[in-house]
Give the backbone structure.
Amino acid sequence: MTVLIIGGSGFLGTELVRQATEAGVAAAATFASGPGSASGVAWHPLDVQDPAGVARVFDEVAPSVVVNASSGESDWAVTADGAIRVALAAVERGCRLVHVSSDAVFSGAHVRYDESWLPDPITPYGAAKAAAETAVRLLVPDAVVARTSLIVGHGRSVHERMVHALVAGTRDGVLFTDDIRCPVHLEDLAAALWEIALSDASGVFHLAGPDALTRYDLGVLIAERDGLEGSRLPAGRRADIALPGALDVRLDGRATQERLRTRLRGAYEFLRADGPSQRAVGDAGAE
């Protein structure tokens, strides 16, 4: 069995590659600008906007399982159209597909969203992610759509780096006290994705932590973990500057968690004990 990670040099993709190779799973991964540093992995340059390039990588790798962890942010050609090209290539070759999506597909009007909620995006990024979800579920009926939230892990996430820069005064900005999400640890998320990918599960999964935090409160926890002065973090309200996007989106993943052996920890837990979760891809399997 060979697995293919689309976006393998990204933040989540790097962890997916690490866990796969540590478990002895044959892995290939794609990159947009430069390959990752993991050894024992076949790296392939790929622009998902290029249909011929997508076909070439699939044919060269001949994967059994594909995890699409790529993201072009609000670039529709990458985030929506690119995901559709990956889905088409997967269905044409009979590959199992896991598509990583985001809580950005929701408007926040209902605050708490379980796996049954349909997307109602209010940003370009959310709309692109929602379009990709819809196409994946129509083109590949047995695919997995895995929605997640803010990803945090070992100081490398955009949220953790922002906290350090704000405390150091090397960047301007504030952390919002009215913008609420359900952060998830990088290792937990990757382990859950592999557990699902290597099973026969299908449908929508919500992979987020159980704790709902404002971005400011999350920043304070990160600062405390890293020995920084959380009191130096500037606070503000997103509503006061009319920045587009949902204010309060809480992914309800209780139904997903009941199907998984991988436990998705809350931010209060993993930020006070941020160490390796010691999970193995080879032990994965959803019910």
In short: The longest helix spans residues 124-139. The CA atoms of residues 59 and 93 lie 9 Å apart. The first strand starts at residue 2 and ends at 6. Residues 275-280, 282-287 have pLDDT under 50 and may be disordered.
